[in-house]
Amino acid sequence: MVPSSSPVSVIAVAEPAKRGGTVHAPGHLEVLRVRRVRHTTGGLQLLGVPASKDSRVREVRVTFVPQGQAVPAPACDLAQGTMDLFYPEAERREVEQVLKQGREHLCYFWEDAHRARKRAWLMASN
């Protein structure tokens, strides 16, 4: 059981780190404050507002991938203001549980400056 003061989160599949002599650069972070959750065919639609002054995303599409299929990496389209997260179907209950807990729900998407690595996660804070 998670203590009430701890954030609860689930992390989408991240791109694996690529080896090489790349120079560290900070990349870009998008943060969405979730205001509404809609159930759709095959997933969820999270609607909200940007949670930082540099964020542009207003919608997150969560897709649950059937067992046995490859889970795609998360994606973000800044021009459209959308983010796509993919989870195995087996993790649906865990993702939905995060959206039922806490007072505030945030969705993060980080991409390194070289666009080689991506990470996305959904979090509920108490």
Can you describe what's shown?
This protein has 126 residues and is mainly beta. The protein has one domain. Helices cover 7% and strands 46% of the residues. It is built from one helix and eight strands, in the order ββββββαββ. The chain has one helix spanning 92-100; strands at residues 8-11, 28-40, 43-50, 59-65, 75-77, 82-88, 104-111, 118-125. The radius of gyration is 15 Å and the shape is globular. The two termini are 14 Å apart.
- SS class: mainly beta
Compute the CA-based radius of gyration.
15 Å
Strand content: over 45%
Average pLDDT for all residues: 86
Number of strands: 8
Overall tally of structural domains: 1
Topology as H/E string? Answer: EEEEEEHEE
| Helix content estimate | under 10%
| Unreliable stretches | 1-6
Total helical segments: 1
Major sheet attributes: 8 strands, mixed
Order of adjacent strands in the largest pleated sheet: 1-8-7-2-3-4-6-5
Question: Looking at the structure, what is the overall shape?
Answer: globular
Instruction: Give the N-to-C terminal Cα separation.
Output: 14 Å
Short description:
7% of the residues lie in helices and 46% in strands.
Labels describing this entry:
single chain, mainly beta, 8-stranded mixed sheet, disordered N terminus, globular
